[in-house]
Amino acid sequence: xxxxxxxxxxxxxxxxxxxxxxxxxxxxxxxxxxxxxxxxxxxxxxxxxxxxxxxxxxxxxxxxxxxxxxxxxxxxxxxxxxxxxxxxxxxxxxxxxxxxxxxxxxxxxxxxxxxxxxxxxxxxxxxxxxxxxxxxxxxxxxxxxxxxxxxxxxxxxxxxxxxxxxxxxxxxxxxxxxxxxxxxxxxxxxxxxxxxxxxxxxxxxxxxxxxxxxxxxxxxxxxxxxxxxxxxxxxxxxxxxxxxxxxxxxxxxxxxxxxxxxxxxxxxxxxxxxxxxxxxxxxxxxxxxxxxxxxxxxxxxxxxxxxxxxxxxxxxxxxxxxxxxxxxxxxxxxxxxxxxxxxxxxxxxxxxxx
Length: 354
Hints:
By secondary structure, the chain is of the alpha+beta class. The chain folds into four domains: 4-98, RRM (RNA recognition motif) domain (Alpha-Beta Plaits); 107-185 and 192-207, Ribosomal Protein S8, Chain: A, domain 1 (2-Layer Sandwich), CATH 3.30.1370; 210-287, Ribosomal Protein S8, Chain: A, domain 1; 289-348, Alpha-Beta Plaits. The protein is 41% helix and 23% strand. It has helices at residues 4-10, 29-41, 70-78, 122-132, 153-183, 198-204, 221-230, 232-240, 269-287, 300-314, 335-348; strands spanning 16-20, 50-54, 62-67, 82-85, 91-98, 107-112, 137-138, 146-151, 215-220, 243-250, 253-260, 288-294, 321-324, 328-334. The strands form four sheets. The protein has a five-stranded antiparallel beta sheet, with helices on both faces. The radius of gyration is 24 Å and the shape is globular. Residues 175-197 are annotated as: Disordered. It comes from Sciurus vulgaris (Eurasian red squirrel). This is RNA binding motif protein 43.
């Protein structure tokens, strides 16, 4: 299976585009590769001469197209809509973006499905999720209900929304069930849930108080952190429309729940703010790049030098977000800013930029 390494070896980053949204399982890999190549060769699609098409890749439904001219790649990305004809009446809506070694094109997450045990068969739940989102890679289900998934950010987003919807639905059913039970005569046989009231308590933790009439946004955690700490637009918009927010970070995926600060009739400001933030985060998703300084395996002095250099440059690069972790340091920003930031860090610590 092809991977990003093939693109790296070609040294054609600026001429390479990432094509997401390809159908999985409908056509053979060879036929789909041919269709993708023909589509991006067509000048009516702003295409041109192609050097190579890398497909399949480690991320299901994603291909890398290496064009011969940088200008053609830019034109293809600039085009708003791409629809690939799969069959006579079947079209796949494609998402096309510039290639970057650090682009947020793939996300890995670990799920704990044990909260659904007692309400449904976990193996059946996983099978349903695989059918619903075939572009995701699922690991075998663990004995404690844990499972790892990997795929594009949009696929992970769809997965999380689906699971939250199922959890919310089960919570409502259990509440209605318990309410009906209370109405029965005390002498009548008392019904109980298979795993007791803890099921309701556990599921309720998935639906925060601010999301009872939820307006929910799911996004990549790096994008969320950048939005929160480097974009005034976020706090300004919440304050302007008097919106309460509750934020939750779960590994590579983060969720924001929005609710009106004051209940009442009329259109929902939370929904409007959700639409504004979704447009903003989508733009960030394609614009941001991430560079990482690995601290593992380095001596204390070298680690401290890297940390010191990053701290020194934070005041200079206001649009770069620096996240310090025990094992590494992430720098997030535009491609030019992150490159310059990394270059200056390497100079400060006396190393060459690789």
